[in-house]
Design goal:
The complex is a heterotrimer.
Chain A: H1 2-6, H2 8-17, E1 21-26, E2 29-34, E3 37-44, H3 46-70, H4 75-78, H5 84-88, E4 110-117, E5 123-129, H6 137-149, H7 151-156, H8 165-177, E6 182-186, H9 195-205, E7 208-210, E8 215-218, E9 221-225, E10 231-239, H10 262-267, E11 272-274, H11 285-288, H12 291-299, E12 306-307, E13 310-311, H13 316-325, E14 329-333, E15 342-344, H14 350-362, E16 367-371, E17 378-382, E18 385-389, E19 391-399, E20 403-405, E21 410-413, E22 429-435
Parallel strand pairs in A: 3-22, 5-12, 6-7, 6-10, 10-11
Antiparallel strand pairs in A: 1-2, 4-5, 4-19, 8-9, 9-10, 13-16, 14-15, 14-16, 17-18, 19-20, 19-21, 21-22
Helix pairs in contact in A: 2-6, 3-12
Chain B: H1 9-41, H2 44-53, H3 63-72, H4 80-91, H5 95-98, H6 100-118, H7 128-144, H8 148-168, H9 173-187, H10 196-205, H11 208-212, H12 216-227
Chain C: E1 2-25, E2 35-45, E3 50-54, E4 60-66, E5 70-83, E6 88-89, H1 108-116, H2 122-136, E7 138-139, H3 150-156, E8 158-159, H4 161-174, E9 179-186, E10 193-200, E11 203-208, E12 213-214, E13 219-225, E14 234-239, E15 244-254
Parallel strand pairs in C: 7-8
Antiparallel strand pairs in C: 1-4, 1-5, 1-14, 1-15, 2-5, 3-4, 6-11, 9-10, 9-13, 10-11, 11-12
The chains are: A alpha+beta, B mainly alpha, C alpha+beta.
């Protein structure tokens, strides 16, 4: 691994050569930056991975069941597992999707599940991203380059090959397409922060990269249009445009990114939309709490992977627990205005603690509480020095004919030692994620 | 996976202009070497004609700023930097058509000129790498792009630019004639991509005697015809 | 039962030709237990074909496109509707009609107003709230826009039928009465009209706050939803830089 770390400049030169960039807007001006790559990989043992893989498949399967249920029978609400108000109050719930059955019943074809590891080795789910999770292209291309630059590293370590992401994606898209026509990746355009990924995935999967305006719907069929009225039927759209911009005749009317009347073609089952419309209801912050309950409800299994332990005072049992354990919990104010933000119970004087207790009693719906987790930091290189930084892991789960987990993931780290924010637009970087074969 | 044979109008336009801009950079580098050489010990009129030929006024007061401006001035659309930015703007949205490896030669060229611009490097020998990258770019297109129409559009752009620049800088007639014949070959099966009446005009007035007179009005006419020829 | 003739026309004119025009209309009356269509026809010109479907609320929609350039777009919906007194049985309304929507979010003062009215039934309470809206609003065309919220309209004290309906919706939902926005035609009105349906005793009842009455006859319903954004008669997008003028005409007459 040392040769890999020594050659990090070579790696970054190759990244530059391939245009591995992401766009950021600063003061309204679009800029493309390199996404800084840290050569020390995150290593996940085979044992850990087998556990994560099972848990991720279980979780995504349950989330897909939940989405189908919400837009059809609504059993989980009738049975009182998820209160209706949590569903209907979610911004991601789209009434326009009621009764629509996506092709092969799959809603979340590509799920980006964000995890963190605690110092004691336990893994926790931070959030589910079931709309348009991005980032898989970076570790893909990083591996392509590091294998070139430091072949001996991969000769001496049994690292699972992660360059098959495009195969997983292609297989899934072909299954959804069912030979109806072209498979396209719909990008909002080159000034989207993830444009590199859109074009790279199109190239690697063999899909056609479509820009706004390239697609039209006529008599419930979607076409890719070309010079002088040429057109080709489209069977599957992997869209990197968010729900509200997808059809200006149904959602945001001012959208120039969408495809008018697409919703109708989709409703008739004439085109697969990857991911489905309306998924936002399942990755909502208010719904996250219920995912372990969904797993029990739909799959009749115990959840393998845990949420960061969360309590909602909305429920009697949790309400009692919070009031009894306030001094050891993190309390978050979820009211729109922001208000109190994040409060650590352990930092409060007895008087302040009593005050907070009263606030929770007065307005239980305004608060959530979580156990404090001691995160495991990862080493990165700052100059020639190894330092520890906060990092998370986004695992990618592909749901086609079967549910599969990509044997890698996007590990993002924060460059600022005091920051928990690992977002790439905040100056963070990424690492390769190694899943060991033995 | 179903093959895509459809080319949307904006993609066609970008392919054409990617061809034009890469060729413009390539020729501009040749011209840079020519004028750089004249600047060493020549007279201002020897190199100030450069902007005149491009239908621009010379924006630079002295030799030094002209030399740097030619290479690195982001506000001058005829600088190497601006031309490479324009080439890259087109290339970046064509990754799947031309492939990452081909695109990387444009990226490499742009990175090189940006780094040189940041350090205001006055020596031009390092820019030879861009010429090499651009040759590799065209080689990569022949190696990796199998769709005839995509390759055709790129070549049409390249040839139109080639003819335009060679007329402006008074290259020998046979160079222009060869490129023009090659362009006509590219256009053979693409009736709807060009204006056939302009081909008739060009066929009629493109001859060695007229060209040899270096008449400004005649050159202007040729440039208008060639620049209005394509309909993408 | 009473029979009514309806005739609805929209003429859009573009200052220069537009192309790739896609449209989604809600201009054909819906059918339900107290409204059936005896005759019905729709003309859309020019178009490359019109598809008839229902939207997520069960409203009839008519959509399609015109790819080639055109400088006007006309649609005409005509027919005869048989009406019974306004009452629409329904098993259980979706909770969405109890939640605030984009245009009907109640302010604190609206919550107070709604709390001041307590009546025996949801319907009578809604009627009392309708009277309150009628008394506190002044009908003034042009004083609001299609995107004006209930709170904005109430604050300025004037608006049109859409605003009256939005305010009543906000008040009813605050008072835990399921309520939905309705768009349609009203006898004697030369344009489309908006009113409210409230849910009580297993049925939806019509209330017209603009005219302060519970509806019995003479209202032909096109569509319903959470607020006006769910019920536009015409939504369209096209390519071109034209400015557009619209002329809308409605006739409703008892036969």
């Amino acid at each position: 691994m040392d040769t890999l770390i020594e050659s990090r400049d070579t790696v970054n030169n190759w990244m530059e050569r391939f245009g591995v960039r992401f766009g950021v807007y600063k003061n309204g001006i679009f800029n493309e930056q390199l996404f800084p790559f840290d050569a020390i990989p995150r290593v996940i043992s085979k044992e850990d991975w087998d556990y994560l893989e099972k848990g991720l498949i279980q979780r995504v399967d349950a989330l897909n069941e939940f989405l189908y249920d919400i837009y059809h029978g609504k059993k989980i609400m009738h049975d009182g597992i998820v209160p209706a108000e949590f569903v209907y109050a979610s911004k991601g719930y789209l009434p326009e999707c009621e009764g629509i059955t996506p092709i092969h019943h799959v809603y979340s074809h590509i799920s980006g599940i964000d995890l963190v590891q605690a110092k004691d080795g336990r893994w926790f789910i931070l959030e589910d991203n079931l709309r348009i999770p991005s980032g898989a292209s970076y570790p893909m291309i990083a591996r392509t380059i590091t294998r070139k630059v430091s072949p001996e590293t991969f000769q001496n370590n049994a690292v699972a090959d992660n360059r098959n992401y495009s195969d997983l994606l292609r297989e899934m898209m072909e299954y959804m397409n069912d030979d109806r026509g072209l498979t396209v990746i719909l990008t909002p355009g080159r000034y989207n922060s993830a444009f590199f990924e859109h074009s790279y995935l199109a190239e690697k999967t063999g899909a056609t990269l479509a820009f706004p305006g390239d697609l039209i719907v006529e008599k419930d069929i979607v076409y890719y249009t070309g010079l002088w009225k040429e057109k080709q039927r489209v069977g599957c759209i992997y869209r990197r445009v968010s729900d509200e911009y997808m059809d200006p005749l149904v959602f945001e009317p001012s959208s120039l990114l969408g495809v008018p009347n697409l919703t109708q073609a989709y409703k008739k089952g004439n085109v697969a939309v990857v991911n489905a419309l309306g998924n936002g209801v399942a990755d909502d912050k208010g719904i996250y709490y219920f995912v372990p309950k969904m797993i029990k409800y739909y799959l009749n299994e115990e959840p393998i992977l845990n949420n960061a332990p969360t309590y909602l005072p909305y429920f009697e049992e949790d309400y009692r627990y919070i009031l009894d354990h306030l001094s050891s919990l993190v309390i978050k104010d979820v009211s729109e205005a922001g208000g109190y933000g994040v409060i650590f119970g352990r930092d409060l004087t007895p008087e302040k603690l009593a005050e907070l207790k009263q606030l929770i009693i007065d307005q239980p719906r305004r608060w959530i509480a979580q156990e404090v987790i001691d995160f495991k930091d990862l080493e990165i290189l700052e100059g020639n020095e190894r330092v520890e930084r906060k990092a998370d892991l986004r695992a990618f789960v592909i749901s086609g004919k079967e549910t599969k987990v990509w044997k890698s993931g996007l590990t993002r780290f924060s460059r600022n030692p005091n920051s928990f924010v690992v977002n790439s637009s905040q100056g963070g970087g990424f690492k390769d994620t190694w899943v060991m074969e033995k | 996976m179903v093959m895509c044979y459809t080319i949307p109008a904006n993609k066609a336009n970008r392919l054409f202009w990617l061809g034009r801009y890469t060729e413009r950079v390539y020729i501009s580098l040749h011209l840079l070497r020519r004028y750089y050489d004249r600047m060493i010990d020549g007279q201002p009129k020897d190199y100030e004609e450069f902007y005149q030929k491009l239908d621009f006024g010379n924006p630079y007061p002295d030799k030094e700023s002209l030399r740097l401006g030619y290479m690195y001035d982001a506000n001058n659309p005829a600088s190497l930097l601006s031309e490479l930015v324009a080439a890259n703007d087109n290339a970046i949205v064509l990754r799947e058509e031309i492939k990452s490896e081909t695109l990387s030669y444009v990226q490499l060229s742009l990175c090189l000129i940006q780094k040189a611009a940041n350090s205001q490097e006055t020596n031009i020998t390092n820019l030879q790498s861009i010429t090499d990258y651009l040759l590799a770019f065209w080689g990569s297109i022949d190696e990796r792009v199998f769709d005839e129409r995509i390759r055709g559009l790129l070549k049409m752009g390249k040839l139109v630019e080639n003819i335009d620049m060679h007329i402006r800088f008074d290259y020998p007639f046979n160079r222009i004639k060869e490129a023009y014949e090659e362009l006509k070959k590219q256009l053979e099966n693409e009736e709807s991509m060009y204006d056939p009446s302009l081909i008739e005009q060009l066929d009629a007035c493109l001859n060695e005697e007229a060209y040899a007179n270096r008449d400004i009005n005649y050159k202007g006419k040729l440039l208008r015809f060639i620049n209005h020829l394509m309909l993408v | 039962m009473k029979r009514y003739l309806y005739n609805y026309q929209t003429i859009l004119r573009f200052s220069s030709p537009v192309s790739r025009h896609f449209f989604r209309l809600r201009c054909v009356p819906c059918e339900n237990s107290c409204q059936q269509l005896h005759k019905q026809a729709l003309f859309v010109h020019p178009s490359d074909g019109v598809t008839h479907e229902t939207d997520t609320w069960g409203n009839p929609i008519q959509y399609g496109n015109r790819i080639d350039p055109h400088d006007s777009f006309v649609f005409v919906s005509i027919g005869e509707a048989d009406l019974s007194p306004y009452q629409l049985p329904d098993k259980e309304p979706t909770p969405l009609f109890l939640l605030p929507s984009k245009l009907t979010t109640a302010t604190d003062s609206m919550v107070e107003i709604a709390q001041a009215f307590t009546q025996k039934s949801a319907l009578s309470q809604a009627c009392a709230l309708s009277t309150w809206v009628y008394q506190h609003m002044h009908y003034q065309p042009g004083s609001t826009q299609s995107s004006t919220t209930a709170a904005e309209a109430l604050a300025q004290g004037k608006g049109v039928c859409q605003d009256y309906a939005h305010i009543l919706l906000a008040l009813c939902r605050t008072a835990h009465i399921p309520a939905r926005y309705v768009n349609g035609f009203m006898e004697g009105e030369g344009a489309t009209h908006a009113w409210v349906e409230v849910y009580d005793q297993s049925a939806w009842w019509g209330i017209d706050p603009t005219n302060n009455r519970q509806i019995e006859w003479g209202y032909i319903k096109l569509s319903h939803g959470r607020d006006a954004e769910d019920c536009p008669v015409n939504r369209g997008v096209f390519t071109g830089t034209a400015t557009q003028t619209a002329e809308i005409r409605v006739i409703v007459e008892e036969l």
